[in-house]
Write a structure and sequence with these properties.
Order of helices and strands: EHHHEEHEHEHEHEEEEEEEEEEEEEEEE
Structural class: alpha+beta
Low-confidence stretches: 1-5, 67-71
Mean pLDDT: 84
Strand order of the largest sheet: 2-3-1-4-5-6
Largest sheet: 6 strands, mixed
Radius of gyration: 24 Å
Helix content: 10-25%
Strand content: 35-45%
Number of helices: 7
Number of strands: 22
């Protein structure tokens, strides 16, 4: 019998961000422990590690802080991913670093998230790094943001203290362009409002963190409108057929459809397609597929399929919002590699149009961007590229800037 893989569960990605020592890892560990997501052997390992570091009980931060350096220093360095199933959905929670020098890792964690859970210490309020995380979440993870005002036990579960911090968070978020967010008082150490409400905050009638996560809608690619499919690879069978594989990035594609290939602008017809290992007549947005054309075409990794009647305009200037990860910043005196979908072209910086002030929460005029800056720039491509029809609604806005000589990632961002 021929093997046919099962269609996967819906996957919801949550990034957990916040400043160092605000209690991200502890709150997450408590969430996993009380929701039954830890196996017996994992729990035994965590109890042993906790004892070695002088804890009489369980240090829940060790659940996600897996590196030895993280447990020794009590910080998160790399993005720590955790997978667990709940009902018909699979969740991937990413505990992202809180230290400023690891902000690039934080951007990695939030870039593919359906929502962001920001942890804020009620005793410290919005630190500069917490503001940085909130702003980056707005630009790189959309606008589905939840804020846990954590360590509420340190202020005696005070409603007044919670409301004061909530007002500060909402005021800054509004400056960043986020008007719809949820704030919740939590104690990761004691477990209040993480999985269970308990009874120490009768004044709060909202949902727990676990319930908020359950209610996060999965980010969907556009199901209608212009469709496109970036080509990830070509597979040649022993019969000599060339199949082109990728993921439908919005819309719907049917066997027999006439298509156009970018950047060559050649046209062809889809003779056959395979979806999830089975021959199919159609494919929806988000589905991985392989297609066979009715003729030989100029198509390879970096090419993109669009509908034959779709409009695609070539351009050599691209406006993007970038977060600078390279130590030397972004300069006008050198070329860079611009990675867009599976395409890579050389570009140079033409103009810096704005820089984001994390302290003020607004974009302002600027002429340069340095390491860990967020700003808007105009890039000049050394050849024409096509901005895809579905780029405004999907992950097809994502770009990366690479130094061609050191292969260092200089910046990550999105097309405006």
């Amino acid at each position: 019998m021929r093997y046919s893989p099962k269609e996967p569960k819906d996957i919801v990605r949550i990034a957990v961000a916040g400043s160092v020592d605000d209690g991200k890892s502890t709150l997450l560990g408590r969430l996993y422990y009380e929701s039954g997501a830890l196996f017996c052997d994992e729990l035994a390992t965590i109890e042993k590690a906790s004892a070695l570091h002088g804890f009489s009980g369980i240090d829940f931060s060790f659940v996600t802080d897996g590196l030895a350096a993280e447990r020794t220093q009590g910080i998160t360095i790399d993005v720590a991913y955790r997978y667990f199933d709940l009902g018909d959905r699979r969740y991937i929670l990413a505990d992202v670093p809180g230290h400023e020098e690891y902000t690039a890792n934080m951007v990695t964690g939030v870039s593919n998230a359906d929502a962001v859970l920001l942890i804020v210490d009620v005793t410290k309020g919005l630190t500069v790094q917490a503001k940085r995380h909130l702003a980056l979440a707005r630009y790189f993870a959309g606008r589905s943001i939840m804020v846990a005002i954590n360590k509420i036990d340190l202020v005696g579960f005070s409603e007044e203290a919670f409301r004061a911090r909530e007002a500060d968070v909402r005021a800054y978020a509004l400056k960043c362009g986020v008007s719809d967010l949820v704030c919740i008082p939590t104690s990761g150490l004691l477990g209040d409002m993480v999985v269970h409400a308990l009874d120490r905050m009768p004044w709060y009638k909202g949902k727990t963190v676990a319930k908020l996560i359950e209610d996060v809608p999965q980010k969907k690619l556009p199901a209608s409108g212009a469709w496109c499919m970036p080509i990830q690879c070509m597979v040649k069978t022993h019969h000599g057929e060339r199949w082109y594989a990728g993921e439908v990035a919005g819309g719907k594609i049917n066997a027999g459809d006439e298509i156009k290939i970018l950047p060559s602008l050649m046209e062809a017809r889809i003779a056959s397609m395979v979806v999830y290992g089975r021959v199919a007549k159609e494919a929806q947005s988000g589905e991985p597929i392989a297609v066979l054309f009715d003729r030989e075409v100029d198509c390879t990794r970096g090419s993109t399929l669009i509908g034959a009647g779709a409009k695609a305009e070539a351009t050599d200037t691209i406006s993007v919002v970038l977060f600078i990860t390279g130590k030397s910043g972004l300069t006008k005196d050198k070329p860079y590699l611009f990675t867009y979908v599976s395409l890579q072209v050389r570009v140079s910086l033409e103009q810096v149009t704005a820089r984001f002030s994390f302290d003020e929460g607004t974009m302002g005029a600027a002429n340069a961007l340095s390491e860990r800056d967020l700003g808007e720039v105009v890039l000049r491509a050394h050849e024409h590229i096509f901005v895809l029809p579905s780029a405004k609604e999907s992950h097809l806005r994502d770009v990366m800037i690479i130094d061609p000589y050191t292969h260092e990632t200089v910046a990550v961002g999105k097309i405006l």
